[in-house]
Amino acid sequence: MNKLSNLSIFQIAFLLVLVNVLVFGQVVGFEFVNYDDAFYVENVHVKNGLTWDGVVWAFSIQYNFSQYLNWISHMLDVELFGLNPAGHHAVSLLLHAANTVIFFLFLNKLTGSRNSSAVAALLFAIHPLRVETVAWVADRKDLLAMLFALLSLEAYRRFAQNPNVLRYASTALFFLLALLSKPVMVVLPFVFLLIDFWPLNRLEGARAAGGKLWTSLRPLIVEKIPLFMIMGVFLLVSVKGFELRHLDDKTSSLPLQIRLAMMPVLYMKYLFHTIWPAGLSFFYPASHQMPPFWQWGGSLVMVLGLTAWTLARWQRHPYLAVGWLWFAGSLLPMAGLLRTGDHAMADRYTYFPLIGIFIMAVWGLANWDFMKKRGRPVAAAAGGALLLVLMAASLMQTGVWKNSFTLFQHALRVDDTNSVAHNNLAVAWMQKNRPEKAVPHLKQALRYCSLCVESWLNLGESYMTLHQAPAAIDAFHKVLEVMPDNVIAHEELGILYHVTGDGPRAIRHSREAEAIYSKLFGPDYPVAVALRRNLAAYYQHYGLPPKS
pTM, whole model, 2 decimals? Predict the structure, then answer.
């Protein structure tokens, strides 16, 4: 690390960008994957580029899941690059490189330690847990949220060291922009309090006085009241968005005791993946069973033990407490208490929280007595080897995201019971017009998730393409058993029953589909109009009187 001291700030920043390009540059040649990329890029409101109607839609509570600026970013990409994935991937890479450099500059100014800041930034840049965020176009929200969070942290550092209204306003503005990118950044005011303690040392007087901690802490909390107010308003808006999109059903369907028991387990899994980033996957299926006592009890003891250990050293080694609380606190919104999907955890959730672990590791090593006396050459060699290993692991993990086939086949090598991977691999085969390849994977997906509507729909579509009408009819009826008002199932059953000559059933399902489309999108919706034409033809073909 001593060699870093001979480099200028600009040279270190350039090296950080170079490392990012070496590890992640390959993403520019990658395709979109059929795991949410189409939802974000080919969305009917996004694929027209940056339009006024699109902006209005992006800021609507009902549809955006509180990702306002994320939608704008994708619209701008389409405006610049169309649907060419190279441009979209290049922007993600550029944002990650920018985040790496800003993180280094912020940490260097905050701590005054160029070497440690550079090493922490390197770890942040190339750790394999970064791959999903950089290589997956749909995760633009984490990149944007990190960018604005880092800018808010830097503005806050400036304010804390030389308070004025403009710097406070900049802090609040960037905080708001981070929230508009992804709501999990509600934790940012608490991070401000952490860096007040270390390394800004705004509580130094209270630490020396012992019993007057609250006296020094109170004004720091009071000065952040406007930030907490912004946080509160945004939480209310996000909760309303959850209700409008029925995402709260995902949470309420899983008993509270299971979610609480899983929280410490997930913390330990994230730590394990940080230390040993093997077996990474785009999707980790959630368990709906109570974890065994030894697992959640042991994890809880570990989490509480680490918390107590770092807090016990808060005076001599404050970076340990700050780093751990940064990690534990900022991961809390994604720790399983509230769920917005069927996944238990996700690599992308660590993008901001892992900063805390990197601070603990780098400053802890730098301040280790052995290191200070005679361990620097050994640590430098070991650190260099570790960085090379991480770079190699990230290079290989990034290649997994090349296209849908490489992504989902890798996930199945990690866990063959991954129903989402089976389903999406089947979709990839369907897009290649190979339904016979899709059917076995859809059957496997349904083996592990028998109530997954999407897999039943895909199975029905595959059988239709294979001209196996009875099997397709059975699949679509399975959909209606789970979701009676599924419009696609009704529409396809109308077609299939007409093909098999069952007029009454063809008419019944087509009428149902037309009614649902008309209710959702209005009677002039093109599909609803086409269904009415089909119904008129069916009545005539089967000699049945039209129903009013």
Answer: 0.91
